[in-house]
Amino acid sequence: MEFLNSADFWLGLVKIIWINIILSGDNAVVIALAARSLPPAQQKKAVMFGSGAAVVLRIVLTVVAAKLLELSFLQIVGGCLLLWIGYQLLSGGDEDEGESKGTGSMMAAIRTILIADLVMSLDNVIAVAAAAQGNMVLLILGLAISIPLVIFGSTLMIKLMERFPVIVTLGAALIGWVGGETIMNDNMLHGYVEAQPWLHYAAAAAGAVLVVGLGKFMQARGAKKEVAAA
Predict the structure, then answer these.
(1) Closest by Cα among 87, 15, 58, 12 to 150
(2) Is the pTM of this model over 0.70?
């Protein structure tokens, strides 16, 4: 327990807490968007199961993330997945009614949470691992701290989305932004982005615009079909 008397340990812990506070926000938004259309009881289950499984994924990622990030095309595929998830959450979030809001919908929400968190957690895990500097106690604490942050953040976001629907659009835009960033972070594009730094922000903005634009278009199209059917 000598490490408790080390200033480096406490400084590392503060860094990890701060990193988790900053980087857990986008994960909480994904969970909230995926679970918002479920009944309240199933919302809680989806948040708990989704967050718990996501933390297990983070433990696995902690071991292999550095190697994974070296693979070309991996983050391009991951970024495209995030763009698709953002579009799906915005365009189809309110379509499930009645019996469709059952176990199938909850499992679909958990699946969405896991896929999105898998992609979005790569950079988060790398940041926490860097702050821990090989200290396994700090690394475990970092993972443990992320659990309540994500669960609390998701629950808060669901309530805010119910009260302020515009947050749903902003959340989808955030997922699109992260998707664009993830694509440009791919190892294969590293040289291009270094030579043209503006590409990073342009891709992120394009991702946000693409997700919101397509999502809103499909929402409007669905509304017209409902009016025509009526």
Answers:
(1) 58
(2) yes
Per residue in 154-163, pLDDT (tens digit) is 888 888 888 9
Identify the three-state secondary structure at position 70.
coil
Residues 6 or more apart whose Cβ sits within 8 Å of residue 119: 78, 79, 81, 82, 182
DSSP 5: G
pLDDT digits over 19-50, tens only? 677 667 777 888 888 888 888 888 888 888 87
CA–CA dist 64, 58 (Å, integer)? 10
Estimate the share of the chain in helix, then strand, then coil, as percent rounded to the nearest 5. Answer: 90, 0, 10
CB 78 within 8 A of CB 116: no
Residue 131 makes CB contacts below 8 A (sequence gap 6+) with: 12, 15, 16, 19, 138, 142
